[in-house]
């Protein structure tokens, strides 16, 4: 009987481990993400808050009204959030996390360059989000040896199965390269992405899983689409990137934009380690969403991948409030996606909005911004044609 007892105990242990695995997974990963019956999954991208502590009323109100309008299944915080004093930093992060915990919305963060400018390490900052976000903070530092902190992948499951229908990649794009510019997604992160994409492909019958990417700093190839290569010997209005030099004209090549505005020169990483090339070759990534450049809200397609800028949550001066807000991204279970900017000034005009009383914009200012936006939208078509001719020759 003793051998039979041993066999029975081993089988029982295996059975209990199998039964406990989903429970452990749920405790570690938080709420599972799944497409709705209509085939949609909604992400709200909120980036570049640059806020003090306590959280300014206008920041919080914009976030609350964006959440109410978008009704997201996931919130991605795009970095450069709290600029509180060191002694206030934990409380400031808790205040941010509380918004989504109370709303019971899963959220994640991709760190920005300013998130490195604290007395806390980036790992300690990440630990604050984990602590105060509880089960609703679903970001992980999936492979701690990778550059930065918080690089991870988040699966979104099909509505009626355990199949991963879409994958969300989050990258820490770092801070700055001394005396050169900004950091980029690093080679080890790109190698990790390739491994993850192949693993998902093998689980998906040999087909790559449709994916989107979130990171703070934009890819360097954006300059190939927006600005000409500088002539040899040029010094004035020239931007250097690891052996490449671009002439920063006042008007970028707007004919290469799908939508949105460009009100400042994009600020990509100095080094190009081949992130976009890797994702373009696989063909799984539909779009790379970034923040960092507060006044931009464009979409530019490069080698089959949309490069999409989300404007800042931080209120701008009156002229730049045309690009003040967040971005709503709707993933479709068929592998496509769509996105739109959720403008603060549009929210302020809705019934019940408290953005005006919070100090976001005055009624007169709201009227001015709407006029300015109408003019900008109308003139954009003209400038697209003009820049197409200028850059053609």
Protein topology:
Layout: H1 2-29, E1 40-46, H2 57-70, E2 74-77, H3 89-103, E3 107-109, H4 122-133, E4 152-157, E5 164-170, E6 176-177, E7 181-182, H5 187-203, E8 211-214, H6 222-226, E9 238-241, E10 244-247, E11 257-259, H7 275-282, E12 285-290, E13 299-302, E14 305-309, E15 325-332, E16 337-343, H8 344-348, H9 363-392
Parallel strand pairs: 1-2, 2-3, 5-8, 8-12, 12-14
Antiparallel strand pairs: 1-15, 4-5, 6-7, 9-10, 11-13, 13-14, 15-16
Please summarize what this structure is:
The protein is an alpha/beta fold and about 400 residues long.
Task: Report what the structure shows.
With 393 residues, the chain is α/β, with parallel strands linked by helices. It has one domain (28-392): Purple Acid Phosphatase, chain A, domain 2, CATH 3.60.21. It has helices at residues 2-29, 57-70, 89-103, 122-133, 187-203, 222-226, 275-282, 344-348, 363-392; strands at 40-46, 74-77, 107-109, 152-157, 164-170, 176-177, 181-182, 211-214, 238-241, 244-247, 257-259, 285-290, 299-302, 305-309, 325-332, 337-343. The strands form 4 sheets. It has a 7-stranded mixed beta sheet with strand order 4-5-8-12-14-13-11, covered by helices on one side. Strands 3-2-1-15-16 form a 5-stranded mixed beta sheet. It has a two-stranded antiparallel sheet with strand order 6-7. The longest helix has 30 residues, at 363-392.
């Amino acid at each position: 009987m003793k051998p039979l007892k041993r066999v029975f105990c081993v089988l029982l242990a295996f059975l209990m481990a199998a039964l406990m695995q989903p429970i452990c997974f749920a405790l570690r990963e938080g709420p599972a993400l799944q497409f709705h019956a209509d085939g949609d999954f909604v992400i709200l991208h909120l980036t570049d808050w640059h806020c003090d502590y306590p959280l300014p009323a206008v920041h919080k109100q914009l976030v609350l009204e964006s959440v109410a309008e978008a009704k997201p299944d996931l919130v991605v915080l795009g970095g450069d959030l709290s600029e509180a004093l060191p002694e206030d930093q934990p409380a400031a992060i808790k205040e941010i996390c509380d918004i989504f915990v109370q709303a019971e919305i899963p959220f994640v963060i991709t760190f920005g360059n300013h998130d490195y400018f604290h007395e806390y390490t980036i790992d300690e900052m990440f630990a604050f989000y984990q602590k105060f976000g509880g089960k609703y903070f679903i970001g992980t530092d999936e492979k701690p040896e990778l550059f930065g902190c918080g690089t991870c992948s988040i699966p979104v499951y099909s509505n009626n199965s355990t199949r991963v229908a879409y994958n969300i990649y989050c990258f820490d794009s770092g801070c700055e390269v001394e005396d050169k510019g900004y950091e980029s997604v690093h080679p080890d992160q790109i190698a990790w992405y390739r491994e993850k994409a192949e693993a998902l492909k093998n689980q998906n019958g040999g087909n790559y899983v449709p994916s989107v990417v979130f990171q703070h700093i934009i890819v360097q190839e954006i300059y190939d689409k927006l600005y000409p290569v500088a002539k040899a010997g040029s010094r004035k209005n020239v931007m250097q990137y690891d052996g490449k030099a671009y002439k920063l004209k006042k008007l970028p090549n707007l004919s290469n934009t799908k939508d949105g505005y460009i009100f400042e020169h994009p600020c990509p990483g100095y080094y190009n380690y081949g992130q976009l090339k890797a994702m373009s070759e696989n063909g799984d990534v539909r779009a790379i969403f970034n923040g960092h450049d507060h006044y931009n809200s464009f979409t530019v397609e490069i080698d089959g991948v949309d490069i999409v800028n989300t404007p800042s949550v931080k209120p701008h001066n009156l002229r730049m409030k045309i690009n003040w807000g967040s971005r709503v991204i709707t993933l479709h279970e068929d592998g496509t996606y769509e996105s739109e900017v959720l403008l603060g000034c549009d929210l302020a005009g809705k019934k019940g909005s408290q953005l005006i009383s919070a100090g976001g914009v005055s009624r007169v200012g709201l009227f001015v911004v709407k006029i300015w936006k109408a003019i900008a939208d109308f003139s954009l078509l003209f400038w697209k044609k003009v820049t197409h001719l200028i850059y053609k020759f």
